[in-house]
């Protein structure tokens, strides 16, 4: 994942000093190449050790590795910008849009893999595989991701509850118990209906897996296992598209792993054949 993308994704969960460092780096990426850790600390008014700790929080061994990663991101962004400016937005070809969205999608999918710890995903898989019943909830834009995951679960023969009606979803959550799982999809993690469903499910002893935009939010805090996606683009045209792709990619990874564990290839083939019969009518 791009270093700058990681900084943007993690910013909301940073301390005041870390945010000052993050904002300075994001606003002055072209200067970082010539800054030592002490110069960066002096420019912001923090200690040199704060710069080192900030670098390590982002997953780098120290400031030199962070500086190298930022410079790589700047070069990559400059290269992409040259391609964009050679094709003004009003004249951009379909081929150019294909290429730009492909590159952005790859960055987001790689970011999803980097953001989520393997142990946490394995724990989510164990719960989903063992669950007697899985309730899936997602409203608005998140409903697209939720509906797709419901279809995947049903193809595997999993007993799945879902509805586009929040009141019905809350009622469904009252029927859950230990051994059941609630899987909620919420971009910002602040949807009031989702929070009601989560609280209801937890009160019944069900485990909750949340899929939200990266960062602490009310839904991820309540969930037993929070997993995350990210949009990675501030442009109004593509942010929601990339967020949806990131969320669906994570759901598809869970789906593939569940299929492997449950050995349901024959069931999937039967499901595909039934769809083919419907298509021929």
CATH architecture of the largest domain: 3-Layer(aba) Sandwich
Distance between the termini: 46 Å
In N-to-C order, the SSE pattern is HHHHHHHEHEHEHEHEHH
> Which oligomeric state applies?
single chain
Gross morphology: globular
Number of helices: 13
Structural class: alpha/beta
CATH topology of the largest domain: Rossmann fold
Largest sheet: 5 strands, parallel
Mean pLDDT across the residues is: 87
* Unreliable residue runs: 81-88
- Helical percent range? 55-70%
Number of strands: 5
What is the CATH C-level name of the largest domain?
A: Alpha Beta
Key terms for this structure?
five-stranded parallel sheet; 281 residues; 5 strands; Rossmann fold; Arc Repressor Mutant, subunit A
How would you explain this protein's 3D organization?
This protein is α/β, with parallel strands linked by helices and 281 residues long. The protein has two domains: 3-86, Arc Repressor Mutant, subunit A (Orthogonal Bundle); 118-277, Glucose-6-phosphate isomerase like protein, domain 1 (Rossmann fold, 3-Layer(aba) Sandwich), CATH 3.40.50.10490. 62% of the residues lie in helices and 10% in strands. The protein is built from 13 helices and five strands. A five-stranded parallel sheet has the order 2-1-3-4-5, with helices on both faces. β4, α11 (218-222) and β5 (225-229) form a beta-alpha-beta unit. The longest helix has 24 residues, at 239-262.
């Amino acid at each position: 994942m791009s270093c700058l993308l990681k900084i943007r994704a993690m910013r909301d969960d940073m301390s005041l000093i870390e945010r000052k460092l993050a904002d300075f780096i994001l606003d002055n990426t072209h200067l970082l190449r010539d800054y030592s850790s002490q110069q960066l600390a002096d420019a912001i008014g923090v200690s040199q050790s704060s710069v080192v700790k900030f670098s390590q929080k982002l997953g780098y061994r120290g400031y030199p590795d962070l500086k190298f990663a930022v410079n790589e991101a700047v070069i990559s962004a400059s290269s992409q910008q040259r391609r964009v400016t050679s094709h003004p937005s009003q004249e951009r070809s379909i081929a150019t849009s294909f290429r730009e969205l492909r590159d952005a999608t790859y960055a987001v999918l790689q970011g999803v893999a980097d953001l989520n710890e393997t142990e946490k995903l394995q724990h989510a898989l164990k719960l989903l595989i063992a669950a007697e019943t899985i309730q899936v909830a997602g409203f608005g834009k998140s409903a697209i991701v939720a509906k797709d995951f419901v279809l995947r679960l049903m193809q595997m023969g999993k007993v799945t509850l879902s509805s586009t009606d929040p009141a019905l979803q809350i009622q469904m959550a009252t029927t859950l118990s230990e051994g059941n799982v609630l899987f909620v999809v919420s971009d910002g993690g602040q949807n009031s209906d989702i929070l009601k469903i989560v609280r209801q499910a937890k009160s019944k002893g069900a485990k909750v897996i949340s899929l939200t935009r990266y960062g602490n939010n009310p839904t991820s805090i309540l969930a037993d296992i929070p997993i995350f996606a990210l949009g990675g683009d501030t442009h109004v045209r593509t942010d929601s598209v990339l967020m949806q792709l990131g969320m669906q990619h994570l759901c598809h990874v869970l789906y593939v792993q569940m299929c492997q564990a449950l050995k349901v290839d024959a069931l999937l083939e039967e499901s595909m054949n039934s769809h083919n019969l419907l298509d021929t009518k």
